[in-house]
Amino acid sequence: MRALTLNGDQDIRFEAVPDPTIERSTDAVVKIALCAVCGSDLHPYNGKESGYDQGMVPGHEFVGEVVAVGSDVDSLLVGDRVHAPFSTSCGTCRACRSGLTARCVHGQLLGWRQNGEGLNGGQAEYIRVPLADGTLVAIADGLSDITALLLGDVFSTGYHGALMAESGPERTIAVVGCGPVGLMAVIGAIEQGAERVVAFDLVEDRLRLAASFGAEVSEPLSQEALCDLFKGGADGVVEAVGSERSTRMAFDLLRPGGVLSSVGVHTRPEFGFTPVEAYDKNLTLRMGRCSARTLMERLIPVATSGRYDLEAIVTHRMTLADGADAYEMVANRQDGCAKVVLEV
Ligand SMILES: [Zn+2]
Ligand SMILES: [Zn+2]
């Protein structure tokens, strides 16, 4: 088959790799129809995460059709159209039973291989998915391929961020960083009944999208001015970037007793605030990988309700063969891009 491979900093190639096959009785192989480049794919691409095996197939956002199942797969049949969260989960361990599928004791990230172990990802024509019963979800009626793909990561992760920020009635929620996940956090906070949702980003196109989903943004003001105006007013902040600067900004936006919900993937060892400052603000900090397998099923009614145009975040459609250009576009935020999907 052909796939994208990562071979070092900014080195994405579209090339022939071995076909995935059923290796264990609980595996499925999926023929991919649509995949996407995620913000977190940029960390190894830009050299901020290292240790991966050169030549691995990256990517964890995809939809497709089951073409083979192992003998112990019960819930899926060849021909089923499926979507997937970004990590595998068994569905039966204690973490999975409690809904924390992101921390399944048998779970692995899709699209990460290190020292010859791990899983190739979904920026490919085919993918092997272990623990298929606990990982893959048949695409519900009325769900488009793109919406199904967004449910597997960005929509679930944004919604998870809004949940961790305790979005709800009479609460003011700020969203720091309006990339795809931040935009989905805006929708999550509104869906969860937040009274005010205020969005922050440096890119005007992204603020416009946030406004279209119902966030307050103040376009004539610079981000600094908006931040000053709003300082200390948020009950909860969803931090969807993962930098020291963005955690500092999130911290400054919070009122005493506020909740900082951090869903950005951090690649630096420090937060933008100190333990003393956190103590002096009676801060609640929540962070961590979204249990997308649990949320993606729960969110199907929201995704199919027609209340939100989730697909509006997909600004570019390209093909798998254009993968190197797609990465460059996402990395450099060219041409107002938010989410880039690749047809396979
Ligand atoms: Zn992703
Ligand atoms: Zn499990």
Descriptive report:
The chain is an alpha/beta fold and 344 residues long. The protein folds into two domains: 2-153 and 291-343, Quinone Oxidoreductase, Chain A, domain 1, CATH 3.90.180.10; 155-287, NAD(P)-binding Rossmann-like Domain (Rossmann fold). The protein has helices at 42-45, 94-97, 132-135, 145-152, 154-164, 180-191, 204-212, 223-230, 244-253, 275-280, 292-298, 300-303, 323-331; strands at 2-6, 12-16, 28-37, 61-69, 81-83, 112-114, 117-119, 126-129, 137-138, 172-176, 196-200, 234-239, 254-262, 284-287, 314-319, 339-343. Strands 3, 4, 5, 8, 9, 15 and 16 form a seven-stranded mixed β-sheet that branches. Strands 11-10-12-13-14 form a five-stranded parallel β-sheet, sandwiched between helices. A two-stranded antiparallel sheet has the order 1-2. A hairpin with a 5-residue loop joins strand 1 (2-6) and strand 2. Helix 5 (154-164) crosses helix 6 (180-191). The chain binds zinc ion (2 copies). One zinc ion binds next to helix 2. Residues 89-90, 92-93, 95-96, 104-106 line the site of one zinc ion.
What's the oligomerization state? single chain
Radius of gyration: 20 Å
Rounded mean pLDDT score:
94
**CATH first level of the largest domain: which class?**
Alpha Beta
Beta-strand segment tally: 16
CATH superfamily of the largest domain: Medium-chain alcohol dehydrogenases, catalytic domain
> Which H/E pattern describes the elements?
EEEHEEHEEEHEHHEHEHHEHEHEHHEHE
Helix count, per DSSP?
13
CATH topology of the largest domain: Quinone Oxidoreductase, Chain A, domain 1
Structural class: alpha/beta
Question: Which cofactors or ions or other ligands sit in this model?
Answer: zinc ion
Q: What is the makeup of the main sheet?
A: 7 strands, mixed
Low-confidence stretches: none
What is the count of distinct domains? 2
Strand content: 15-25%
What is the correct CATH architecture of the largest domain? Alpha-Beta Complex
Quote the distance from N terminus to C terminus: 11 Å
